Structures
1.
Amino acid sequence: MTVSAAPRSGRFPTLAKYDVLDELGHGGMATVYRARDRRLGRDVAVKVIHPHLRDSREIAHRFAVEAKAVAKLRHPNIVEVFDVSSEDEPEQYLVVELLRGLTLRKLLQVNGAIPPEVAAVIGVELLGAVAHAHSAGVVHRDIKPENVMIEHRAVPNMGPDAGVSGVGRASPADQPGDRALVKLTDFGIAKLLDGNGMTSTGQVLGSPAHMAPEQIEGAEVDGRADIFGIGVLLYECMVGHLPFEGNNPAQVLRRVLEGSYPSAERERPSVGKTWSALLDRALAHKPEDRYPDAATMREALQVELRRLGVVSPRSELESWCDDPEGFGAQHTKRMIPVLCDLAGAARKRGDALSSAADYNRALAYAPDDPALLRIVTSLHRSENSRRLAKRIAPIVAGAIALGALAFFVTRALRAHPATDPTPKPPVSVATGPTASAPLLVASAGAGGATGVDAGQVKPPPTTLVISPTTTARSMNPPKVATRDVVLTRINPPRALVSVDEAPPVDVEAGRTFTFDVSPHSLVFSCPKDLEGNSLCEPRTVRVPPGPVAPDPLIIRLNIKDAFLQVEGDPNKHYVIKEDSKHVIVGEDTPVKMVESASRIVHVTELETDRNQTVQLRAGKHATASFLGP
């Protein structure tokens, strides 16, 4: 239902009440056309089921379910259904409002990751739509960027090709935020909670990377499956890739079922801990650990937006649509002082965790700011000291308890000397500097026996020496000099570290290493892919001996190049849009991987302006094919 380029079909379907004008696109179940409603004189989108599916009772049933599900919903963020075909018509179709814009999937392909606050605004709009659908007993069950449309009307002084969609122009009646609208589409596999038997138990419908675990397992599905789907969508918007990835659908499904994914903050530090924690709750493996309903998650997003000073969320989305690149640069400049102010306020009220979270996000936007580096390093050291104090508190308490026990034992021995009839050796008294504090000596024979056989030598008594003046001091171990080494930044965010040849463990920015005064070695590396190959070149950092703490560490690992090959016409020219890099047909072209081991690029055939979207992975080969029409 998008106004996007699509090959014109040689034959359009004939409909009783609509003039079909052109084809907009097609999917696995139906083709979407732009048509003219003869009665009302308006353009609409007509979704016509494929001819080879027309006779399938299951597909026809799902098509009817979509009509029934969406027709009962009236919400500004849900595509509106106008009409549906009757049973006696030769074509089976659904008529909905014509949306002029781009899918969220297309926007992600063109622009990459979206600023977290803009992504959150999209989430607020979608959650409003989902809450309305849930209240009507409808669960979408297939929320993904392909099913989200962004309508955008350019401002009057911008051309028709401006902005991310460039379809339509603003009208004088538009208010701030009115020019960008989010629409949720395609309820084709929605489950009607009040429609018994619509979907049989155990039937898996949906997109693997966006499906909730209970949906994959064929268990009962409710509105919390849509919350999971929105969590996946927002993660991809904020981070730039899906949380659950794999080389094939089976691997993706397994990772969803395992609940295995890297945190958003770890993958892209500029997302920050607060947004990352919000996504973690939405992506919880168990439904009961997620937000209980769409309204609750929507409020959580709105609270964080207000905290960050976003008072007009839709205007935020509108500004990004007008100029994504320019908005991104301004957004970074704006967020740094906002985050620093929030962090400073949290620090003053003693909320160290919130303060560290906001300072860390600000540092992700300004990694070379020396003042921020000093603050973050100081916070990490303070946090380290707090954790150390927490760890040694039981030890200190134990030492105090032992000291108290020794004191009372000493008093008890003084007050109640042992009454053993066996002659005692004389009590020795220490001389010299400690003469004022006599050593108390208690003797005890084996089993308390006092007699010995003739001719045997009596063993000396076992002695317990308690010195009140030295006991407490001897219980405290000598202090060992240590120094802290703070890892303030690491790229890529998902990395490993091996300390002194120990097995590698996960590491992230903000980690503090505590070492003694001897030399140490840290080897930083990337995780391995499924074939066991490291994704980047390791880097070794030496910590010299001595009591002085080294400067904070900033680690940048060299991710291995990806390789791209173009299949096409040798007489034409091909270029990678993001890098302005030319690619020669039939040759493996190395492509730099800067921020992560995976990235999406767009390859253009300059003569025809045709494009191919390709996902590149470090150390791997990928192909962009321009063969065929």
Note: The two ends are 23 Å apart (CA to CA).
2.
Amino acid sequence: MKTYSVIIIGAIFMAFSHFAGSNQADNTTITIIGQTAGATPFISKLTLVVSDTSVLKSIEFTITPKPGSVTRPLSATYSNNYLVSRGFEHPPAGAGEVVLPVYGLYDGYTNTVRLTYRFMDGSSKQDSTLITTTAFTDPCGYKNPKVLQARTRSTELSYDYIMVKGSCSDFSPAIIDTDGALRWVGTTGFSSAITTFFDNAVYLAHGPQLYRNELDGSFTLIGDYSSIGVTDFHHNNDHGKAGLLLEADTATAIESLIIEVDASGNVLKQWNMVDIITAAMVAGGDDPTQFVHPLAPFPGDWFHNNAATYNRADDSLIISSRENFLICLDYETSAIKWILGDPTKQWYQFPSLRRFALTLAPGSLPPIGQHAVSITYDQNILVHDNGLQSLGHTPAGANRTYASPRKYKLDLNAKIATEVWNFEMGQTINSPVCSSVYEDAPLNYLIDYASVGGLGIPNGSAQLLGLDAAGETIFYYEYPSDPCIVAYNSSALHLENTKFPRVGPQPRNLSARGFVSGGDNVLIGGFIISGTEPKTIVLRALGPSLSAFGVPDVLGDPVLSVYDSSHTLVATNDDWQTDIGAAFIVANALAPGNPSESATLLQNLVPGAYTVVVTGKGSTPGIGLVELYDLWPISNSAIENLSSRAPVGTGDNVLIKGFIVGDVESATVVVRALGPSLAPFGVSDPLSDPTLTIYDAKGAAIASNDNWQTDPNNIVLQRLGLTPPNASESALVLHLPAGAYTAIVRGANDSTGTALAEVYPLH
């Protein structure tokens, strides 16, 4: 298999280096004058004196891993504006002190910390310091796991850090790395497993209250929900449509209310499952009092909500009822869309609920006592099936003596659920409650067996296990634990490149590679700037420098032109060194590798639709590459609807489109490949039957489609109004983690013609 992504996806973030002549890095003096221990040994604060803070753009710290470590270094970048907003730097501009929080240190160790200072003109310089920390007294045993399998250098895994949620101490939660080292603990002083990582901070629920715990150790109360009847929060703290999904108890309902709050703690929406299920049963002619018992405590509670997730593809909320099923609601109306569960349980006896049930495909097991529902990259449903039957309903349904993560593909047109993956470990692990499984990058999993040994069994344990994309066990750690106490609902974290403020999840960066000749056979890229603020971008058109990556027949002298929505020429460039922004392009390490290649700096590009056209000077043919770099991704504007059009031939002459999902969160996208429907727009010789394949950054194919109607998610395309106009065209709905991706458009049976590739982010 060819690996295309290496040569067609450019980095979206700037790489900085010294360049010729005087610059701000050389002219600015930064001195480390002290360090102060933080709230725990894992945190320290460096004090810097900066001769001119007005030219400082950002400061990055990187902690050097211990010898023998396999994990990527923990690193974070603070923008200068963020430091000012948090009170770590004091204006007015000029000489002053900056307090730099450093978190994720090893305790009881002399840490080497590298600092990178970046400046407004694109220059940078580095420094380093040593931070010696005291030992942390760990009451939970995170520092000393039983190593069932150590992570070794021969393994690959998409994540390196794990947030372990537990109520074993007042230092909740904990963050470990995949070497098994403890790297951070909570500082609120509360014992709580109801936590998640959101907006670059830990959000922790305690009683009816919600706290935000910064990685630098500070924390704030952001919400007290007793005024809306909440007496306690329980189980999970999950990501929702615009904020966090919290499971709540009230005086009138036990474990059956979900509320969504934003990052500031404001209530956005509520779903009362007592009311929703009651209404559905009444509408279906059943007596809800035979099933709904709002005040019954566990183990007799009727619903036992333990997790929820938002599916952006169809604007739905999927809720895990441990006692009964997975149930999917329309996010806006709360109407029930489908139910997936064990048909031998009580719920299935009621026609009003049974009418929503998905049929299990032959060979598929239903989820029982499931936890941690989530959406995988390919829009499948992932749960940890704990195997424990209902404790509050009769009949109680099937019972299994082992736990297993399971993934289901749903065909909502046929109302069929097919189990497409499980991990049963030889059906030997009994973990009946609290366990979880989450996917990070495609097919990379973190599995948490939170109650190994069962309920009420002495000398139990919790186990954390990592799987890579090849299905290999990468690490396997065990901790002494009563059920659900030490490791509950653990989740993968990406702390190797955290940015403050947070860069939100959105597909960014346009890149496309195709064959360029004459007439309609040129390379065309389209993008839309949405929002209210102008964008600063760099566009490049490459040809000769592609030869170094093994690309044959490259475009010898590419010419770049940019047009707005009224077809007015905004900018053009032949040789990049002639562009007015050439110095800026050099300073930001974006200079093309050949002087005959093109690049242009577009500052303050207002929101709107734009088209980029790459031609060959003198109509000379060859393979070319066009790239867009969003230099200021932190703003109230975004790059949307990335499209690329080019001729599709055979061999290397295919249409290759690159896009980046950034920065550390997932995004749901629709990717389309069009051909026949281009004909009405005057495109001659359109590709009659385009096929679409998506590759990750390592060149592995993760999804493909020929005809869009064959994909089970086509119902989502219909809802969104994004169905391709022609049945032979292709489309995929994907829930992708942060990273670089490549879409390759070919012609079925080596057919040729002009095609269009598009990426739509879903908001």
Note: The longest strand covers residues 637-648.
3.
Amino acid sequence: MPQPNFVASRFLSSCLLLLPALASLTLATAQEEPFATQGHASLERGVPVADFRVPIHTAEPDAGFAYGVWTAGSHYKASFHDGFTYVPILGTSYPHNLPLAWRTLSVRVGDHELVTQQGQLAWTEWRAEYDLGKAVEAYDVLAEGIEQTFVVRHRPAVIGDLVVRGAIATSLHATAAGPAHQAVVFHDAADIPIVSYGAATAVDANGRRRPMTTRFADGEIELRLDAEWLAEAAFPVVVDPLLGPATKIFGSTRTEVDTAQEPVSIGDSVWVAYGVAASASDLDLYVQRWSFGGSLGSTPFVDVTSSWSTAGARCGYANSIDYAVIVFDRSFPSGSRSLRFHRHLNSDAATSTAFQLITTTDNAWRADVGTVSNSVSPHAFVVWQQEPNGGGAFAESSGSDIWGCHLDLLTGAVTTPFPIANASLVDHERPRTSAVAGGGADGWKVVYQHYSTLVVNDDWDVALREVTSAGAISAAIAIDDGSPDHKMAPQIDGRASTYAVAFTSSTLAQQPGKPSGANGHQIRTVRLHWDVIANTATQPHGTVVLQNNADPRLELGGLAFDTWTWSHWGLLFRSTATELLYFRTIGMKALQLQAETVFNPAGSDTSVSGGVGFSSNYREFTIAYANNGSTGGNYVTFDRFDYPAVTPWATTGPGCSQATISWDGEQLIGSQYNHLRVNGAPPNAIHVMIIALAPASSVFFGNPLFFDGCWLLVPNLGPDHITMLVDVGSSVSWYIPLPEFLTNDTFYFQDFHTDSNQLLQFWSTPRLEVPIVK
């Protein structure tokens, strides 16, 4: 029989040369369409929640502007602090709000007036009441709208019709209508129906019902209940028209989605923050918690008011102290724009409106937040784009700076903001930070784009800096510096020494001048190795073009690091031309592995690209996004991406050695930090590890190099033989990365080692079988 060839190099670098014929790889870039789902991974769809409601609440004033008393549903919000005002959610295509206000003028039975005092407001979570004296004007919060009721508590002393009159203040218009059991529909200037004031019905204490007539003329609504029915009614009597959307507006009402995933929690572990646009000038903020299974849980934070506009929310989660943090900016009627944050303890299921200030002298926006993990440190880090205009009316300048500060999530303390990148005559924009910092001096990695105003036809470039918890800032490191083109809207995530950066790009010919948007012709990725001692980074694998298109349709969404494999990232991007959302996973060299189409619009639906998180508990990525639908409604949801299933590694066949052979690491292609290990061999044993792509089966007898009865379980020659590795010791290991160019396969390993007498006779372990998948 053939004997093993033991003339093999000793791989002191522990680097396995898998499939040398594929060592030279040419990367082809892909066009967006057609775009096929690849691999055998699983994309589990979330359950969209189109209808929800927000409790009646108030909040502290900000910048001299009162918040008010508000509630909201999926398609409306409403205030009670200055009487009742209904505000339909119209989306960003409407330049300003179109509210409809009701003011009660009279509630009478015959000639007897029941309104004997100015309405006194009181509220619970889902009901607001104005005590009018002998009647109560009340509003119940429903998912589909606001149910207005008038409650006549006691039988009046007089006989007559019950008549409720109210004044309507709105820029909407409705056709005058005579008395009938009918709804009154209010339209905008384009004659689109916006708000419906529903047909009214009276209900007495015994549940008897009576349709009422509604009349509308000259800005007044009159509801009338006949005296004959009222005379026989059991009191209290309730009148209940419903205010709601006449048409559920299908425009861009959902905006700016982000997510934070509690890494190891179960239950409601997915935090989703998003904007809702009553109009282009009035954005609200919602933060919701979802179970990992896809059901909507609590609403930890809301910012629902017309006193200011809230945008740019970004989420973080500090697993070590179980706090979430949301940072956002507010635009005020004075024209200024500044940062706020909300911190929320995991165990607190209540809806909060609490916020804290990040004080800056200039306008601040485009913030991002990172936290600390695997530590008791309560610190978080916020980075943002700052416009050096002295705090006047907000305007994006050509000389923006990057600033940051630290937060104490337990106490709410905020450090003094400090500049991170503020060179003169340079525009610095769109900063992002890694989601989590390491322990010790290891800090957050910040990326941003910058453009020199001194250089003729300069391009946007991407720079990286580290900011530690002590406020130390490293020198700037250029990302993909060898390509003379625009690199925009970068994102970064990773941990310790392992990071990836993604960004959009276009050539100067494709986007001449200075592009103001975040979209480009390409999505690029770069794998970084961070030297924690020298505080600098290398880019060992160069730049990967992940997606390429002939026009600047590509918009980067979220980027998240897989903290289980420490080798993979999930990336979300959007096509502004087709509204499709795509999810990719990349591996140790930032090359593509799996590809999924997350969202394929129906009709004229539009998408909002969102955030990506990773759960080490479930070993899945979460992908949050929004749909603004012409057919399917407007909603925010998230999907879950699960890696393809893999058969666990196993030992098979007989071994004549007491030593054990095992696989330590992942079996996913793209994984970097894997080791092949042998333990329990004699001291100073010489090891020869054979690696192959198929099993073998032959036994040794009469060979002086091997103990009789040992088996050769993997081929040492032929087309299925890969290589041999050599080492010395009782316990040995070899570093076995699984680069992205590999395909689904099974590797077979068997170790031969000398005996304790060092007679150069070899014992063998069982065979180790390690399936790998992409």
Note: Confidence is low (pLDDT under 50) at residues 1-39.
